[in-house]
Amino acid sequence: MSSSVGVARREFVRTALGALAAGAVAPRAFAQSAAPLTERIEFKRLVAANRILAHEEVVDAFGHVSLRDPDNPKRYVMARSRSPELVEFADLIRFEQDGRSLDPGNRTPYGERMIHGAVYEARSDVNAVVHNHAYALLPFSVTGRTLEPLIHVASVIGSRIPLWDIASRFHETDMLVRSMEQGRDLAATLGRNTCALMRGHGAVVATATLKQAVIAAIYLKVNAEVQLQAMAIGTPRRLSDAEVEQSRETQFSPLALDRAWEYFCARAGVDPS
Amino acid sequence: MSSSVGVARREFVRTALGALAAGAVAPRAFAQSAAPLTERIEFKRLVAANRILAHEEVVDAFGHVSLRDPDNPKRYVMARSRSPELVEFADLIRFEQDGRSLDPGNRTPYGERMIHGAVYEARSDVNAVVHNHAYALLPFSVTGRTLEPLIHVASVIGSRIPLWDIASRFHETDMLVRSMEQGRDLAATLGRNTCALMRGHGAVVATATLKQAVIAAIYLKVNAEVQLQAMAIGTPRRLSDAEVEQSRETQFSPLALDRAWEYFCARAGVDPS
Amino acid sequence: MSSSVGVARREFVRTALGALAAGAVAPRAFAQSAAPLTERIEFKRLVAANRILAHEEVVDAFGHVSLRDPDNPKRYVMARSRSPELVEFADLIRFEQDGRSLDPGNRTPYGERMIHGAVYEARSDVNAVVHNHAYALLPFSVTGRTLEPLIHVASVIGSRIPLWDIASRFHETDMLVRSMEQGRDLAATLGRNTCALMRGHGAVVATATLKQAVIAAIYLKVNAEVQLQAMAIGTPRRLSDAEVEQSRETQFSPLALDRAWEYFCARAGVDPS
Amino acid sequence: MSSSVGVARREFVRTALGALAAGAVAPRAFAQSAAPLTERIEFKRLVAANRILAHEEVVDAFGHVSLRDPDNPKRYVMARSRSPELVEFADLIRFEQDGRSLDPGNRTPYGERMIHGAVYEARSDVNAVVHNHAYALLPFSVTGRTLEPLIHVASVIGSRIPLWDIASRFHETDMLVRSMEQGRDLAATLGRNTCALMRGHGAVVATATLKQAVIAAIYLKVNAEVQLQAMAIGTPRRLSDAEVEQSRETQFSPLALDRAWEYFCARAGVDPS
Q: What is the nearest CA distance from B23 to chain A, expressed in angstroms?
């Protein structure tokens, strides 16, 4: 026990010095950087979110969900590199916005966490981010056909879903968002929207709360499935901007949001609280 | 116990006064409004119907099924606001046709229960209503392509399936049927038909019995799935009106209806009685 | 016990007299008509076949599979009217080829058993028949597009799959094959083929053995699914008649047939023997 | 025990003499040919690979996966003829590259094992081979439309996926690769690529390690599913050759490969080690 305290103290000092050097951390955070994640409700929900997204096939072996740190808006919390289906509380790690890990165990983080950090940096209104490769979205990402909300439950995805292509600025890569520079380019394309597609890759979803992020990611996929079928038989009519705005407010209200959250928790076998 | 009786009595008085004011309630109903729902076979089937519709993915987080109250044709019974997959007997509530709840516990009802009340009001031949968002229906609802019965098991959906668009009369809304005025507009479009589609939203199904409503809602979805595929390879030939009429009579006869009900109960893990 | 013996004896006499009158039954069959179905391997396989076809979604609430009676080629064995997913040994009944039931319990038979009787009557080479409504077949049945074997595992469905329309001879009906006259019309369209589609309804599959019937029914559905997708991206090339002939012989050989049977039994949770 | 030793010794002698006659085996292998397969990690993974491929529906009743023998590069190891879903360690058999079985029990091998032997013979860089009939691949195999990597997770399938037609050289057959001559013709079409399609049949996947083979086979299917949908709504843009090369390196790196392997093992209920 004393050795782990020693490790924690050394990690604390290292992180604190690095943070001081970066000029990014207020003194109070020094103590916090070494603080383990308590089993508070927000983090339990983050684990639940991982399981739900996996169960609904919004994510598969790849993909991740994060939460802006309730204790420090310049940090975020997400799992170490592990499939969402398998994530447990012990897998959660705190990160600085630029992606530096605050994990005492120094476990391998997701290579694409910069997506999350860059969105939190650009969007003070966002507190939860999902990055996923849901298959139904990919035909839109590789053909450039516009994905738009057709059905009321999908109003939560917002009126406009831009398409980002990593090659526009970064030319030929392995397609992954590995740096803050790439993350910021994606965040710039996302703008003030809720969702953006990533060419040949997947999507990013950004909302004010974790429950909203999960629901929006699920219905982004559902809308894509419906739109694929609709385009095969005719020209689908989209919801108008006013319909999207009013419906989104209703679908994100506690009545609807909590009913959906309870339903998806039950399906994934997780506690809905 | 005495306090809940007191609550029930106060609720009874309030409801009764309101009902008297509305001129809608006969004296005998005063006593009934406070009567708890007994575990009679019709209500057990209503719970089973919820579970079957969820299992067959006719409904998901959203959607609901109701039954005209066997004790009072001006009332109907449905669950409080909860996903059908999770509904239990204790969730069932009685409603006046105009949507006023007779729930002693005053629990949150479905926001769109007016769909049900308006259909019961307009159709004395209907005793069960399903409202759902089955994904296969939505491409038809957003393209205006006509959904029509192609296969004999789907004759139960009827010959004609009109499309209702809330915006025609109510302009831009959050797409939900929140008032009796909107419900009556939908019921007017439904007319004497079994099913109607709702643009960018889903469908309503209205039949004489609960088993018929469940079977019709399931095969409405199946027919849509088959029609989507058929339209991709050619021009599907629909059943003629005479074929629909004769086949529907057969498919709704006890022999076929009970075989299907038993099958879907078994799949959903509920008692088929 | 004596009363059921009495019932059985009376039933025996009735059946025997009717059989004598029809001139269709040899004296030895009199004793057999009252004999209960022994739990021999062929009948156990018939129960397994029901479960496999349900598990693979070749049948759903509706559909049935039968076996020519090993003891009397002018009879066949199938379940009473019940969804295949639920069929048990006790549900099996013997039928005369014309559809008359030999069930001492006089339980409700499948309304469309005439499909089976008519095929056995027309085809001395056939000993097992499946009637099903697999959804992937229905787009072909309502558009008239030709379903043909594209993939080697589906060579078992044969080179040619005719389409039968009940309305050609019987005009407007409830679409069900209710009489031997209708069954014989379907059998005439089936001809010497393994499969035939039924407009707006489903298909019939007829083979020499029960295992072959189950495998052919499964791969008829698979081939349809592949063909639907292939037709969406180009013009599919079918197997040549010689390829169908050679591949079918291989796919129906014990090596391949038994491997497939064992696999589908395992999936359905039934004993493969 | 002594009789089985006697059997093993006789089998050893027979195999050794045959091997000597063929001039293909070095003396040290004589002892090895009779050595039973030890439960080493590579063979446990081979069993796991079978189960994963079945669970992900990359294979069904048919299809197989093999491993180049870690002890002798001129041999390979795969199961006896059995559906991958059911394969257990005891089913594994060693084969000479030309397909001759080294199974003391002389159990029935897969009829198409020559696919594996021919690929190992042609490709010294390949140590694992999958042959499968995944349904999403078949529309491409029968229309000649080009399957190409559209999404980054599918970069592992390589830039080019040739199509092999058995009839080009062997005219009309039962479509199975039954001889080394046919296997070599397929291997010639595969060339230096990772995957090749087989007209009206399926595909072959060849990689350096077993984990890579499983992941590539899964994402070959996923890419096909996405491409089918993309082609229905527009003209899909494929990954560039440089993107494929860079992404493949990342996706086959331990970080990504192990995360995917752990995920698919968990889904299939097998130990990921």
A: 31
Contact between D173 and A160 (Cβ < 8 Å): no
Helix (H, G, I), strand (E, B) or coil at B109: strand
- Judged by CB atoms closer than 8 Å, whether chains meet at D226 and A135 is answered as yes
Q: Which residues of D touch C249 (CB under 8 A)?
A: 174
List the single residue in A with minimal CA-CA distance to D156: A174
Pure H helices in B74-191: 114-122, 138-143, 167-170, 180-190
Q: Which of A85, A111, A174 sits opposite D246 (nearest CB)?
A: A174
Q: What value does the CA radius of gyration of chain C take, rounded to a whole number of Å?
A: 19
Count of residues making up chain D: 273
Q: What angle do CA C1, C5, C7 make, to 5 degrees?
A: 115
Sign of the torsion angle spanned by Cα atoms C241, C247, C251, C254: positive
Q: Which residue has the tokens 């979205």?
A: A137
> Distance between CA atoms of C68 and C61, rounded to whole angstroms?
23
Q: Say if CB D162 and CB D193 are below 8 A apart.
A: yes
Q: Tell me the per-residue pLDDT of A49-71, one tens digit each, with 9 for 90 and over.
A: 999 999 999 998 899 999 999 99
Q: Which two tokens stand for residue A161?
A: 């879903």
- What does DSSP say about strands B128-132 and C64-68: parallel, antiparallel, or unpaired? unpaired
**Residue of B202, B133, B108, B57 whose CA lies nearest to A254:** B108
DSSP state, C172? S
Q: Which of A88, A135, A137, A138 to mutate to test the interface with D (most CBs of D within 10 A)?
A: A138
Closest residue in A to D151 (Cα) is: A200
**Rounded-to-integer distance, Cα B143 and Cα C30, Å:** 63
The 3-class secondary structure across A22-76, one letter per residue, is HCCCCHHHHHHHCCCCCCCHHHHHHHHHHHHHHHCCCCCCCCEEEEECCCCCCEE
Q: Decide if the complex's ipTM is over 0.90.
A: no
Chain D residues whose CB is inside 8 A of the C256 CB are 62, 111
Q: Quick: pLDDT tens for D2-14.
A: 444 444 444 444 4
What distance in Å separates the CA atoms of residue B115 and residue B78, rounded to the nearest whole number? 12
Of B50, B48, B102, B51, residue with least CA distance to B76 = B102
| DSSP structural state of residue B133 | -
Residues of A in contact with D150 (CB under 8 A): 138, 142, 200
How close, in Å, is residue D252 to chain C by CA atoms? 30
What does the mean pLDDT of chain B come to? 90
- Residues shown for chain C: 273
Instruction: Report the C-alpha gap between D146 and D227 in whole angstroms.
Output: 10
CB contact under 8 A, C143 and B239: no
Mean pLDDT (whole number) for C174-200: 98
More confident: B270 or A16: B270
DSSP three-state, residue C109: strand
Burial (0-12, 13-18, 19+ Cβ within 10 Å), B79: buried
**Taking residues B196-215, what's their average pLDDT?**
98
With beta carbons less than 8 A apart as the criterion, state whether C196 and C163 touch.
Answer: yes
Q: What was the pLDDT predicted at D118?
A: 98
pLDDT by residue (tens digit) across A59-115?
988 999 999 999 999 999 999 999 999 999 999 999 999 999 999 999 999 999 999
Q: Collapsing DSSP states into helix, strand and coil, what is residue D234?
A: coil
Q: Give the pLDDT confidence score for residue A35 in this predicted structure.
A: 64
Q: Measure Cα distances from B99 to B20, B194, D209 in Å.
A: 16, 22, 64
| Residue C59 DSSP one-character state | S
Tokens 């229309």 correspond to: D143
Contacts of A140 in chain D (CB under 8 A): 233
* CB-CB neighbors (< 8 A) of C142 in chain B: 150-151, 226, 230, 236-238
Question: Is residue B13 scored above 50 in pLDDT?
Answer: no
The C-alpha atoms of residue B247 and residue B242 are separated, in whole angstroms, by 8
Task: Please answer whether residues A218 and A264 qualify as being in contact, where contact means their C-beta atoms are separated by less than 8 angstroms.
Answer: yes
